[in-house]
Design brief:
Length: 412
Amino acid sequence: MSNSPWLSLSDAIATMQSQTQPVSGSEKAEIKAAVGRVLAQPVIASLNVPPCNNSAMDGYALKSSDGQAGNTLQVVGSVFAGDSEQPAVLAGQCVRIMTGAPIPTDCDAVIIQENVSREDNKITLQTHTAPQANIRLTGSDITQGDQLFTAGHRLTATDTMLLSSLGLATVDVYRKLTIGLLATGDELVEAGNPLAVGQIYESNRTGVTALLQNWQVHIKNLGIVADKPETLKQVLQTAQQDCDVIISSGGVSVGDADFVKPVLDELGEIGFWKVAIKPGKPFAFGRLGNAVFCGLPGNPVSACVTTEQLVVPVIRHLQGETGLANGHRLTLKAQLTGDIRRRAGRLDFQRAVFSQNEAGTLMVTPLAKQSSGVMTSFSQANCYMLIPAEADELKSGDWVDIQPFSIAGKLN
């Protein structure tokens, strides 16, 4: 690790991952409640999907040797999905078959019902039917013994559908992390209470909780802590006993009432303090006993940016998720709509609006107000626009990186 007090974002994430270990404990989770959980064991297919040859369409099962256009075949029965008995089919015969129904042993093709004409118990083929036409073959989706997922895979909704198709009711996942969340500051007041002169409502815990809710963690609310070193020390000493991660907001700068860093230095250890990003430079990372500590800046925009860009990656690492080496957020290219001049030195996460023009090109416009205290910038924006640390000037038409907040255009 560099001795520089200002780490780049990538170096900060790499440092946090190198100084932390994923959890080892696992538990059983019901498939229906497993979305977002991280697999603790690989998943091996115990059966074929589909388990037998079945029809992909409603139509007629026949021998492909009888499949020439113009042939007339006798209908000798019907097969529905779930039927276990199969009628015998001789040359010149066929059976009515429904989507998902097992293919009779004597048949090797299905002609869809739109390609035949039927009169009483006879059909006339209007098109040629080749071998295996409109048949889903045994194991064509999943073959018994296939490894479907590795340990460390985070399950999606469609993953749970796949697992259910194997007959699985539960799956082995890593245990949930417990996240202790606190805010520091004598000026902070819980929402719903009256404000005195000089006070403000505390909002960072609400925002951070919302940002972490999709990552399947337990949130332990540690409340608002006064700007008193002894009080902060007591809260942190208690929290480290049953929390995997402790997240504080405020108190990590260099003011006279910023006690987080010296208390962390006394009780545990500081991995780094200050990251070369804007907003969010005064971010603290360290250890408190067995707990990982993340100290967010007090300004709400900075707290959101550092939660998404720094806290979420370390949480995903601690949860045992793999495949994070190339980043954890979708990044796209967009063309800038105006000129920008700024002071170089930090990677800048500007709140911006992107859209697609008639030619299909993504265009992006940063919002005018970029202060770390202006939360309306998130409500008005639908992406981060990233300005590289070394850039002091960008021109209209330049290509820049953007990170969409979500498909719906709101902050995740």
